[in-house]
């Protein structure tokens, strides 16, 4: 399977871009979705989290209360490491499972932490959605109703634009109108189909 990695900072437009590839018939594997799948009700991971942090982390509908868990690990490096050690391998396995099961000509793998979490190793090439930081801030604040400080503190935990761009094979500069993304994704779709064909010929 030919895997195109798609990344960008918070609010850069990863979903706006991946929606367009999906409309072209390409399957999307999303690291955030995989991170939710591994702690669904009834999973061993959810039970381990509940016995480690307390049963009050399980909401009435049997799902993990993610906001409460974030609070528990926010200021505690040891607890964060415990959680990461449990979840990262499970998330990695789930992502691989979804990539292997994809049936479109190639697959887009979206992750906000592609560069930070080493997930780049799963990709044949990397597409970065890049926007100036002030646009990233404005769009995220408008979408999530957050204040600038909240968004800035998340941005501070992510790779910088320069770090991402240094790893990019392809870049979409998303400072344009949404409609202009259609043309750029359609162009890239042709490129990725061609690269997929080349990879399949090599095998
Ligand atoms: P996150 O990392 O938080 O999941 P993201 O990278 O997936 O974010 P999107 O949700 O796609 O980002 O975009 C952030 C917000 O900006 C959304 O409300 C989206 O509709 C809007 N947006 C994205 N691209 C554009 C654009 N070119 N013009 C105007 N608004 C845009």
Give the arrangement of secondary structure elements.
Layout (H helix, E strand, L loop, with lengths): L1 E6 L6 H10 L3 E4 H7 L6 H10 L12 H9 L2 H25 L4 E5 L14 E6 L2 H12 L3 H10 L3 H7 L2 E4 L4 H25 L1
Parallel strand pairs: 1-3, 1-4, 2-3, 4-5
Helix pairs in contact: 1-9, 2-5
The site of adenosine-5'-triphosphate has 16 residues, from α1, α6 and α9.
Structural account:
With 203 residues, the chain is α/β, with parallel strands linked by helices. It has two domains: 1-26 and 106-198, Rossmann fold (3-Layer(aba) Sandwich); 35-103, no CATH class. It has helices spanning 14-23, 31-37, 44-53, 66-74, 77-101, 133-144, 148-157, 161-167, 178-202; strands spanning 2-7, 27-30, 106-110, 125-130, 170-173. It has a five-stranded parallel beta sheet, with helices on both faces. Helix 1 (14-23) packs across helix 9 (178-202) and helix 2 crosses helix 5 (77-101). 26% of the residues are buried. The model has no long low-confidence stretch (mean pLDDT 94). The protein binds adenosine-5'-triphosphate. Adenosine-5'-triphosphate binds at residues 8, 10-16, 112, 139, 143, 174, 176-178, 181.
């Amino acid at each position: 399977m030919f895997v195109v990695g798609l990344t960008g900072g918070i609010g850069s437009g990863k979903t706006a871009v991946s929606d367009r590839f999906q409309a072209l018939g390409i399957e999307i594997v999303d690291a955030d979705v995989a991170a939710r799948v591994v702690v669904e009700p009834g999973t061993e991971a959810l039970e381990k989290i509940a016995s480690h942090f307390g049963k009050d982390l399980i909401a009435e509908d049997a799902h993990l209360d993610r906001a409460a868990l974030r609070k528990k690990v926010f200021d505690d490096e040891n607890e964060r490491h415990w959680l990461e050690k449990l979840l990262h391998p499970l998330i990695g396995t789930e992502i691989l499972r979804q990539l292997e099961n994809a049936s479109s000509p190639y697959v887009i793998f979206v992750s906000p932490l592609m560069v930070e979490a080493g997930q780049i190793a799963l990709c044949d090439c990397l597409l970065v959605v890049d926007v100036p930081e002030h646009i990233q801030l404005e769009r995220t604040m408008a979408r999530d109703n957050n204040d600038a400080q909240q968004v800035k503190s998340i941005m501070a935990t992510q790779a910088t634009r320069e770090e991402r761009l240094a790893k990019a094979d392809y870049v979409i500069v998303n400072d344009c109108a949404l409609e202009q993304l259609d043309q750029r994704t359609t162009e890239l779709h042709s490129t990725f189909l061609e690269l997929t064909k080349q990879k399949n010929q090599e095998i």
